[in-house]
Amino acid sequence: MTGRWLAAALVALAGLGAGTVQAEDFPRESYAEAQNGVAAPFVGHWMLRYPEPEGTIVSAILVDCDDPVVIEAVDDTTIAYRSPAMDAPVQFALSAFAGRTSWFPEAGNSSIAVWLTPDRFHIYRTDIGKAVWDDPRLMERCEA
């Protein structure tokens, strides 16, 4: 499975939209103690859903903890990401930048992770190198 497939999947998910939420409603930097640019904090099983801005009654879950997204460390600054819809994991090189973590696939657009807590982060897609700040997805660590 290539980074292009993952990029296409993220674009398809983006078409579902987050409603009338504004970009300024979501953080652009991780919390102060976050370890940006390293693989270890991302390792684990994750639920993927839409964030819950104030006033949200029900948040749509895209991937639940029964069949979660799995992120593994390849090395200190590379992760392997696999969702239930993927046949094989996609690798991302990680880089700390401006208080957040950039994810770079072998091919396709990068993504940006902003840690909210040690067990929650927003993932933002990019379009021609620019973050789409008003349409993140929320990753929440599944309980062991």
Structure characterization notes:
The protein has 144 residues and is mainly beta. Helix content is 8%, strand content 40%. It has one domain (3-141). It contains 1 helix and 10 strands; from the N terminus they run αββββββββββ. An 8-stranded antiparallel beta barrel has the order 1-3-4-5-6-7-8-10. 24% of the residues are buried.
How is the topology of this model organized?
Layout: H1 3-14, E1 44-49, E2 61-63, E3 69-75, E4 78-82, E5 90-97, E6 100-105, E7 111-117, E8 120-127, E9 130-131, E10 137-141
Antiparallel strand pairs: 1-2, 1-3, 1-10, 3-4, 4-5, 5-6, 6-7, 7-8, 8-9, 8-10
Question: In short, what is this structure?
Answer:
With 144 residues, the protein is mostly beta strands. The protein has one helix spanning 3-14, and strands spanning 44-49, 61-63, 69-75, 78-82, 90-97, 100-105, 111-117, 120-127, 130-131, 137-141. The protein has one domain (3-141).
